[in-house]
């Protein structure tokens, strides 16, 4: 290699590349017979001919022409740097062991992960074909692209039904666990189903695909509740100028298949499993559509109770603690004439269209209540509630400091200025109500409004974390929400008591049935639609056929087995961060990713990480806080929720990683100039080793 480097010294890169290409054409037949493809010691890649001695770097996985083997890293990386491997992000061979797919499967996985176009894949196959004769020359052969798609007319649009059972069996075959829904577990116990039970959560929503057109998709998605792989399954897909004109026509194929599965069950590995639909998750317009009920702005629009709204410029629901709740039986019998337009085809299934259609907190709380409150403070609200420009700037400054120095890697979006609230995504509003709002609004929002906001924060934090499991906390959260809604008129105005605020009164009952708020939220479905379905449209013509073919290609592509051990990042030979397989949690030396709660209830800051050679275990040198005070005391002491104001950092001690149980968000205490004073929020519903 040294001679080769000397040969090329003084030449331009273009000349180097031309000579490499010429030599590659001369020796490619030799490579097919006796060579290896390895890394080329230049700026891009290195072709190194295999010698008779077959000297090989023991740290570099080989890739022979006849039997290629690849590193089982979750992502494909091409090293273009000649620096030491210890300085780059690595996952060592000892971290986890998985059987690597062959080259064809690897290319299939790679193309699916990065959404590579067919034209680009075909070009790549033509480049690789001389070195790998087993590869096809066309992307359609590699990806098993179907020749035709069974598209049928549905109302004024087009419709493809992919089916549930086949996809469900495939997903369940990857591994099963218990359901997270208390309602399902209760039914399993009552019906003596043991573990031979499968259920699905269903989602229906609209997906615009063009900004300059009304054309949109309406996918019907499912998640297998007991499956280890929680990625949504596309069961059906509608495409048209608007939503389907008739919900029953749209849902009929799905309902018929579900009825058959409810009657006959599902056969998995010779065992017959009982099948049920556990819940239907959707936003309020989609729920009104599939349940065939009046819209949420109607005077009779509440799905959970019979209280009528009042029109005050818009439909509002004045606070009433005692209301009559709707029941599944009466809904099925069409008793609620003012509420139901017609009978929904979903009523033919063994699913309660009141109790098993929960209120999605992504739309209800994050994009509904919290966004409306921020709008009142910043842009449009009563004079007594609207903040002046100086206060708004102070809030944005705090958010900027948090974004730059204190925001962990698990959060997908960094906080933006509050003036940009119209562009905030649901995840940003979720972070605001759970963690950021209490800190950045403190001593800026008027005291009575801040206290009122904290009622909502505490209630949502309880329902989004493991505290929901304790009846005393659920009841307390329910009281907090009632108090929050009851005082809306006093703190703001009666006109603010719209549909979303009223439905906060019914949120706890859904938590009792389905667990913490994230168990039945639309977040995974919305993420799948935006990052998977929408990205499958590469051209304006025939978008339905494009997505249908991409989904069929995806069905041929088996996911790599999940990593079971830690992914280590090193710099200068020292461990700087570790990504844990469960929940993708990062343990790092940076301040934003170094705060953890231990099993002994200490809050520690990681200062160094050392591998002890044991699976999923490493040694932490850490500092811990001696002083833990309540961050707030109204409506309850924050320490009851594990939220503290911290200071007085103690010197380092060594603990094992198995002693930490939860990661924490460490925010600065803006009310104190001391830079070592922080506010600590344990992550909601994210245990590390439990």
UniProtKB/TrEMBL annotation:
Superkingdom of this protein's organism? Eukaryota
Entry-linked PANTHER family = PROTEIN, PUTATIVE-RELATED, TRANSPOSASE DOMAIN-CONTAINING PROTEIN
Q: What is this protein called?
A: Transposase domain-containing protein
């Amino acid at each position: 290699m040294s001679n080769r480097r000397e040969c090329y010294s003084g030449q331009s890169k273009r000349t180097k590349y031309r000579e490499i290409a010429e030599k590659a054409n001369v020796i490619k037949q030799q490579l097919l017979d006796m060579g290896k493809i390895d890394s080329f010691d230049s700026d891009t890649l290195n072709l190194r001919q295999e010698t008779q001695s077959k000297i090989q770097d023991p740290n570099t996985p080989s890739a022979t022409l006849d039997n290629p083997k690849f590193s089982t890293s979750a992502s494909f990386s091409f090293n273009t740097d000649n620096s030491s491997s210890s300085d780059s992000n690595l996952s060592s061979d000892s971290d986890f062991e998985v059987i690597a797919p062959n080259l064809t499967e690897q290319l299939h996985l790679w193309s699916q992960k990065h959404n590579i176009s067919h034209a680009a894949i075909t070009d790549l196959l033509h480049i690789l074909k001389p070195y790998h004769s087993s590869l096809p020359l066309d992307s359609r052969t590699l990806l098993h692209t179907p020749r035709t798609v069974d598209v049928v007319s549905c109302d004024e649009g087009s419709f493809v039904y992919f089916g549930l059972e086949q996809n469900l069996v495939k997903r369940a075959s990857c591994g099963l666990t218990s359901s997270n829904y208390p309602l399902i577990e209760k039914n399993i116990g009552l019906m003596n189903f043991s573990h031979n039970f499968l259920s699905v959560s269903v989602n229906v929503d609209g997906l615009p695909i063009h900004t300059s057109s009304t054309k949109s998709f309406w996918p019907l998605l499912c998640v297998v509740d007991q499956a280890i792989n929680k990625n949504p399954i596309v069961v059906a897909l509608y495409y048209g100028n608007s939503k389907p004109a008739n919900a029953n026509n749209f849902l009929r194929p799905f309902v018929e298949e579900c009825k058959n599965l409810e009657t006959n069950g599902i056969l998995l590995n010779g065992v017959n499993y009982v099948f049920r639909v556990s819940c239907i998750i959707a936003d309020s317009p989609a729920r009104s559509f599939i349940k065939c009920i009046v819209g949420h702005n109607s005077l009779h629009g509440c799905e959970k109770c019979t209280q009528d709204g009042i029109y005050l410029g818009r439909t509002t629901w004045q606070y009433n603690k005692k209301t009559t709740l709707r029941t599944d039986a009466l809904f099925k019998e069409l008793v609620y004439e003012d509420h139901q337009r017609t009978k929904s085809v979903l009523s033919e299934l063994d699913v309660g269209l009141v109790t098993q259609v929960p209120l999605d907190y992504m739309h209800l709380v994050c994009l509904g209540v919290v966004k409306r409150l921020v709008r009142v403070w910043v842009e449009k609200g009563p004079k007594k509630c609207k903040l002046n420009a100086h206060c708004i700037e102070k809030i944005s400054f705090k958010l900027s400091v948090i974004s730059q120095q204190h925001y962990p890697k698990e959060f997908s979006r960094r906080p933006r200025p509050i003036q940009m609230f119209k562009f905030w995504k649901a995840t940003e509003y979720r972070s605001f109500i759970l963690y950021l709002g209490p800190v950045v609004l403190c001593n800026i929002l008027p005291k009575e409004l801040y206290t009122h906001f904290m009622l909502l924060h505490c209630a949502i934090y309880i329902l989004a974390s493991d505290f929901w499991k304790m009846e005393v906390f659920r009841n307390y959260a329910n009281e907090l929400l009632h108090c929050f809604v009851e005082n809306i008129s006093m703190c703001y105005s009666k006109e603010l008591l719209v549909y979303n605020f009223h439905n906060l009164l019914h949120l706890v009952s859904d938590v009792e049935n389905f667990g913490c708020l994230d168990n039945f939220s639309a977040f995974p479905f919305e993420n799948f639609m935006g990052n998977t379905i929408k990205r499958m449209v590469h051209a304006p013509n025939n978008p339905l056929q494009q997505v249908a073919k991409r989904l069929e290609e995806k069905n041929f592509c088996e996911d790599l087995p999940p990593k079971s051990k830690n992914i280590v990042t090193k710099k200068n030979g020292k461990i700087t961060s570790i990504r844990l397989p469960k929940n993708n949690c990062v343990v790092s030396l940076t301040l934003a990713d170094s705060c953890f709660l231990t099993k002994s209830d200490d809050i520690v800051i990681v200062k160094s990480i050392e591998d002890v050679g044991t699976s999923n275990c490493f040694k932490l040198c850490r500092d811990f806080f001696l002083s833990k005070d309540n961050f707030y005391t109204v409506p309850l002491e924050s320490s009851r929720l594990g939220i503290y104001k911290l200071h007085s950092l103690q010197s380092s001690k060594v603990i094992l990683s198995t002693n930490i149980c939860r990661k924490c968000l460490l925010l600065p205490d803006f009310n104190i100039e001391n830079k070592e004073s922080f506010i600590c929020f344990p992550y909601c519903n994210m245990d590390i080793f439990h």
